[in-house]
Amino acid sequence: MKLLYFAWVREKIGQTEENLPLPEGVSTVGGLVSWLRARSPGHAAAFADPRLIRCAIGQEFVGMDTPLAGAAEVAFFPPVTGG
Asked: Domain residues of the chain, as ranges?
C-alpha cells in the first residue's frame, strides 16, 4: 500500500511517501493511524491528534472508521480550508 503525506504531516514525518504492506491486525484508517504513530518520533508527532488529520483512499475523502481492504493508496493531510 502506498502512503502519501502532505503539508505539515510530510514535514513532521520527513518524507513524502512510503510503500508498506497492510500491517497485520489493522483494518481501518484509524487503526493505520494508531499503528503509524509507533513507527518513529516523526510519525508520532504527525499523528499525535488524529482529529487534525484528514485521509483519502484512492483520492476520495474517507473517515477514520473506513475499512482499508483493497486500498492501494492512502493519503494523509491537514484539514483543507477554502477562501
From this structure: 2-64
